[in-house]
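Encode chain A's predicted structure.
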Amino acid sequence: MDINKRRPAKRTDGKERIKQVAGKTPTPIDWKSVQLMCSMLATYREIASKMGVAVATIERRCKKECKMSFSEFYEKHSADGKLSIRRAQFQLMQDGNATMAIYLGKVVLGQREATAVVQDDALTPDKLLEMVKKGKVAKKDRSFDEAYTEYTKQNPALNDKGYGI
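Encoded structure for chain A:
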């Protein structure tokens, strides 16, 4: 009998044998649960762990079953979670939470805290060094720190950092 003309083997009951697919049966992935976890801003690893599969499996199966990459799927469904956070933050601000109002002003509106730099021109390190060299503040054998301390004692209008009060 020719090898190319073999017929499929028949079972004893007359039915044809069904060819078995090798490998493990795929773990079912509940995409509604994955969608919910994305909206809760869970990480890829957390989602894969909860589904009982590897991250690569989630990515591969998402491409096959949802017709998009998992990063696209995640971005699409995580927007709901981000919106919920913004809604809660906005509600806190409306309820009078000043910290949240400041935070939202910085993040959303790009506001910044103004920092004022106060400089007293009466005393600069260069002027102090010149005074020490001339002997107006201290004798030449004293260190700069000792001269500075003595000068601030002679000028009570200056605090310990050299700025006017």
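The mean pLDDT is 76.
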